[in-house]
Amino acid sequence: MSIEIANESGVDVDETSIVAAARFALDRMEVSPLAELSVSLVTLEVMEQLHVRWMDLPGATDVMAFPMDELETGRRPDSGEISPALLGDIVLCPEFARGQARTAGHSLLDELHLLTVHGVLHLLGYDHAEPEEEREMFGLQNRILGDFRAAMNAARRQDTQRGNDERLLGAAGLHERTDSESP
Fold this sequence. Notes:
Order of helices and strands: EHEHEEHHH
Distance between the termini: 59 Å
Largest sheet: 4 strands, mixed
CATH topology: Collagenase (Catalytic Domain)
CATH class: Alpha Beta
Shape: globular
Mean pLDDT: 88
Number of domains: 1
């Protein structure tokens, strides 16, 4: 799965983490590993221009999704090789998201993860224009985000434990060398 990210927003964010959130969502949605996705982080001004141009709505917004290829969902098992599919582009506005993060009581990165998953779902055809669609999309979004956060926390715990183990083993090895070198 190819995910390209370009940060032209002027806001310093953990781009690797945003890519991880996108990859996690795509994996959860069983999107082909040959899929290609682009994520762009832009300024308020650029987002406002996109919002006016493509949605005919004033002002900036937090996330926009621009789907490209139609996804092949009902493929037959005996069909030929799958070809790469350009899913589309997700455009995020960290400046706009910062205010939403503050209101929601979480970090900017948490908000960008949420918006990334939201954008992925839009690329996959989900919408929230009608109440039933909104329940389905937001429920799915919340499940994916919860699983992503749990996976990230487990990875952090594992990294911490690995670091602790390495320090203990390193200290034990140093202690053993010191003892064996003593007269």
